[in-house]
Amino acid sequence: MDSAFVLKDRSDQELLDGIWAAIRRESENVAIVIAHLAEIDSRKLFLEDGCGSLKDYCMEVLHLSEDQAYTRIAVAKVAQKFPVVLEMLEDGLIHLTAVQRLGPSLTSDTHVAILEEATYKRLPPRSWNSRDSHHRRRGNGVRAPGVAGASEPSSSERRPAIIIKDSLLRRLKEVKKERFGAGKRQKKGMAAETSAEKPSRYIPKEIQKAVWERDQGQCTFVSRKGRECSARRFLEFHHIIPFAWRGETTVENLELRCRAHNAYEGELIFGKVRRGSKKRSLRGPTRFKTSATSSRPEQARERG
What we know:
Layout: H1 12-43, H2 45-48, H3 54-61, H4 66-81, H5 84-90, H6 96-102, H7 111-117, H8 128-138, H9 161-180, H10 188-195, H11 205-214, E1 235-239, E2 254-258, H12 259-276
Antiparallel strand pairs: 1-2
C-alpha cells in the first residue's frame, strides 16, 4: 500500500494539515479537469476519438459514471461562458453541484455576484418530487419514499443481458420497417430520378436497407486508435467518396454515420479543400480516410 495512505503513525496536527493540503490539491485537479473538458468540447475533439458526444467521451473513454459526466459537462459549459468559475473551483470557493445548479441563472451582468453569494454555501436540496420526476424520465428505477429498495431496483427487476439484446434487436427491426417502409412501393418520381443519367443524391430504399443491415444500425466511424462510435440514434448515410466529388450512391460507397460524425468528416474533407486547393478531381481510387474503417468498403464489417 502507498505510504500516503498509511496514516496511523501521524500526529493529530499532521492529519489536520494533511486533509487541508489534500482538499486544495483536489480543488485544483477538479478545476483542471473542467478546463480540459471545456476546451475538448470547444474543439469537438471527442469526435476524433470515436465518440458522438462529450457525454459518450466522458463515459466510454474517461470511464466516468453518468452522474459524474453529466455534472462535469454542465460545469464545463458554464466555464466556457464564465471563466471565473475555474478560478473559484481551483480555490475551493465553490463546488461543482453549486455551479451546475446556478449555471442556467447566470448572466454576464450577474454571474460574479451570484457565484460570490454561493461561496462556501450549500444550496437547499431539491424537493423529492422534482428529483423523482427527473429520475423517472431517465428510467433509473427510483421509487417513492418509504418503499423498500428505493435507491436501487430489486434483483427481480434487473434484466438479463440476453433480454436487453433481444429488445434491441426487436427495436432495430421496427426502426428498419419505419425507415425503409417494408412492403411499400417506391414513388414513381423517385424511381424516375434514379434512372436518370444525372447523378442524384437520392438513395433508393433497397440501398438504404442493405447499408443499414450491413452496418447493423450503428455509426461506423472508427477513430485512429480503433475506437468505434457507439451511436445508434440520429444516423445518416455517409458517402465515402463524397457525392460532390463524383462519389457514387452505392452500397459500397455508403456507410452509416451519426449526425455528429457525418458533419465532422464533411468539415475535414471540404475544409481542407477550401484552404489548400480549388481542385475537386480525384486521382485514382482515393478513399477519404477520415475514419479508420476498412479501406475496402465492400467488405461488411462484423460488429460484436
